[in-house]
């Protein structure tokens, strides 16, 4: 039987209608430089993405090595600048080696696919990033999710799993939609007790937390406690790409077996050169992290005074837990009209009923911009109080 010519169009139209009715339709917005909109939505925590020194380093890298790498790392795309960057990332995080991936999404897919098979047992925090959930699926591993931040629940699951099965415990370092930080010490202790490896995805901690900007794991928790560390370059470091850091044996294994590593073109060399510049700035301008922490403290103090529904986060991710997705869209729209961009986060990114404004702070924000944000939030709260 030939398929009906219009069945796909009907299917797409009905999925679209359903999504709109639920108030969950996602929009892209085209951003133009210097539009005067204050960005409180991005992950550029140190304000490096638009730093002219990074742009300059990127241009120089492209002139020297080419605009593109020309091939995958295992063919001819692994350039000197990639090798240097891997060494610098290993040094920053206190690990023997690091391996570059094109994106954090691919680093997580590749790591899980290379390490796991149908016999592996995975234990993931319920709020882990989508790429970790998808990676478990790609790997075909048995995956269970423990209650967010609940090491007792994790310990119970581990105790019930087969003693001799290979086990991997996985958690975000800083949770991307809540801003809270995982208890790395507790996770490491429980994992070791059950002979499980611990993998931490520190996408939002790297560059922001830690004495050296080395993240919530970095040099504070060594290789024996956290054997697998993932970091991304598109957030605080302001460029793009990601890396896995760990032992020589782990990195060798990923080079052999991680398909999302093997079968993709290496990162453009200019991006690697710009990332090296970002690492220089991270090391020489600790005041950026200091200013960022001051902005977080100021925002939390003022938001508390206004009675806004703050989360417990002490990181630059400061969600306002409004609950209802339509309310979130309304507030985000009013803020945008006032020249302030925030993230409007709804299901399925967060559980139903937990929609939120995801406000992120950035070392390039001025106190004036923060005051403009707080003034608008104050007006929105008042408007709801007086119908
Ligand atoms: C952003 C993010 C990723 C994905 O990284 P990309 O480089 O953007 O693909 C992975 N894990 C976490 C926790 C993230 O927040």
From TrEMBL:
Protein name: 8-amino-7-oxononanoate synthase
Keywords of the record: Biotin biosynthesis, Pyridoxal phosphate, Transferase
Assembly behavior: Homodimer.
Reaction it catalyzes: 6-carboxyhexanoyl-[ACP] + L-alanine + H(+) = (8S)-8-amino-7-oxononanoate + holo-[ACP] + CO2
Binding site for pyridoxal 5'-phosphate: 104-105, 176, 204, 232
Pathway: Cofactor biosynthesis; biotin biosynthesis
Gene Ontology biological process terms in this record: biotin biosynthetic process
Coiled coil location: none
Binding site for substrate: 26, 129, 349
Cofactors named for this entry: pyridoxal 5'-phosphate
Similarity annotation: Belongs to the class-II pyridoxal-phosphate-dependent aminotransferase family. BioF subfamily.
The organism of origin for this protein: Billgrantia endophytica
EC number of this enzyme: 2.3.1.47
Domain of life of the source: Bacteria
Modified sites of kind N6-(pyridoxal phosphate)lysine: 235
């Amino acid at each position: 039987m030939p398929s009906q010519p219009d069945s796909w169009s009907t299917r797409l139209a009905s999925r679209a209608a359903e999504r709109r009715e639920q108030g969950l339709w996602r929009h892209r917005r085209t951003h133009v430089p210097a539009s005067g909109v204050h960005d409180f939505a991005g992950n550029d925590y140190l304000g490096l993405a638009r730093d002219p020194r990074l742009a300059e380093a990127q241009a120089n890298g492209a002139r020297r090595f080419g605009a593109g790498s020309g091939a995958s790392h295992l063919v001819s795309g692994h350039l000197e600048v990639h090798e240097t960057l891997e060494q610098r990332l290993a040094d920053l995080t206190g690990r023997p080696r690091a391996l570059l991936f094109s994106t954090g999404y691919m680093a997580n897919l590749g790591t899980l696919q290379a390490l796991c098979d149908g016999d592996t047992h995975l234990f993931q925090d319920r709020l882990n990033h989508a790429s970790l959930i998808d990676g478990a699926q790609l790997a075909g591993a048995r995956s269970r999710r423990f209650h967010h931040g609940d090491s007792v629940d994790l310990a119970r699951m581990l105790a019930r799993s087969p003693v001799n099965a290979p086990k991997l415990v996985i958690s975000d370092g800083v949770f991307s939609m809540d801003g809270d930080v995982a208890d790395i010490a507790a996770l490491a202790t429980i994992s070791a007790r059950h002979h499980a490896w611990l993998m931490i995805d520190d996408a939002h901690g790297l560059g922001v937390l830690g004495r050296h900007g080395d993240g919530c794991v970095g040099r504070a928790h060594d290789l024996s406690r956290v054997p697998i560390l993932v970091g991304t370059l598109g957030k605080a470091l302001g460029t793009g790409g990601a890396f896995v850091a760990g032992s020589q044996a782990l990195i060798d294994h990923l080079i052999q077996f991680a398909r999302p590593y093997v079968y993709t073109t290496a990162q453009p060399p200019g991006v690697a050169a710009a990332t090296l510049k970002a690492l220089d700035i991270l090391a020489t301008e600790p005041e950026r992290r200091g200013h960022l922490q001051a902005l977080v403290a100021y925002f939390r103090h003022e938001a508390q005074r206004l009675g806004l529904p703050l989360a417990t986060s002490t990181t630059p991710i400061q969600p306002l837990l409004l609950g209802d997705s339509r309310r979130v869209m309304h507030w985000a729209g009013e803020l945008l009209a006032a020249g302030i961009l925030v993230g409007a986060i709804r299901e399925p990114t967060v559980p139903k009923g937990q929609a939120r404004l995801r406000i992120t702070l950035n070392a390039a924000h001025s106190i004036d911009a923060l005051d403009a944000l707080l003034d608008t939030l104050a007006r929105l709260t008042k408007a709801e109080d007086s119908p």
